[in-house]
Please model this.
Amino acid sequence: EKSGLHLDPAAAAAVRGGGRTNGEEDVDMLLADQDELRAPNASAPGGGTANLFRKKATLPQPPATAATRKPLRIKIGQPKLPKNFEEDTWAILKDAITAIFLKQKLSCDVEKLYQAAGDLCLHKLGANLYERVKKECEIHISAKISALVGQSPDLVVFLSLVQRTWQDFCDQMLIIRGIALLLDVKYVKNVANLCSVWDMGLQLFRKHISLSPEIEHKTVTGLLRLIESERLGEAIDKTLLSHLLKMFTDLGMYSETFEKPFLECTSEFYATEGVKYLQQSDIPDYLRHAESRLQEEHDRCILYLEANTRKPLIATTEKQLLQRHTSAIIEKV
Model:
């Protein structure tokens, strides 16, 4: 009964008592089959068996992994800008630029101005900011250079005014560049052929110097006069000379605006001096004089001229003092 099979009582009694009835072999087989089914793992090799009465188990599903799990995406909308945000922020920066060029006290600290410029760049307004900064700087740079027109006829005094204007410009543009640093980093560097705020200021200064022939001419003439005075043995302000030549270098005007006329004046100076000195001196003295002049020009390149000027300068000096008078020197020897 435990196995679920119902046997004839006589047959069951015969089985339990060891006796045999008709069909005893069949009963023995049924009992043996039930015993085998009740004994798990009896017939499977290695302990495993297929229980015919057990429902097939369902294998558990593996947990979802990062590779199979579908990512959850949350879209956050761009925060809405306050009304007139760009105009109000630019008004603050414009007032600051004006105060910087006019040497006035800033209405707010530099850190806040830096953050204001950064906010405009963060909201993709860098292009407008760059053009506005450029326009505002040009207004003040143009005014500074125009103020030099008609100034002192004394060339040394005039050069001092130019040098002061240049130094003020550099100091002011350094402050503006600091405020607009994120404009350079977030916008300018990602736009092809667009110069930094500092280089933009240099371009504007050069533009307005070139637009004023009087200022450019008086500056170059003053520099050439200083060098000529030094060649004649006079004391000059070498610091002033060095600063203004550095200005031409920074503006990219040195080669065309200064070096070319400088070499022409050098050629004229030594052409005149060579003829005069050769007539008044014997050959040993003249050669010593020529050697001394060559050393002076070499030192001049070290002190305030560009290094690239040395080669053409020495060649010009040698030509006018030595090569031009080779025949006369040989005859006197």
Residues 1-7, 10-19, 40-53 have pLDDT under 50 and may be disordered.
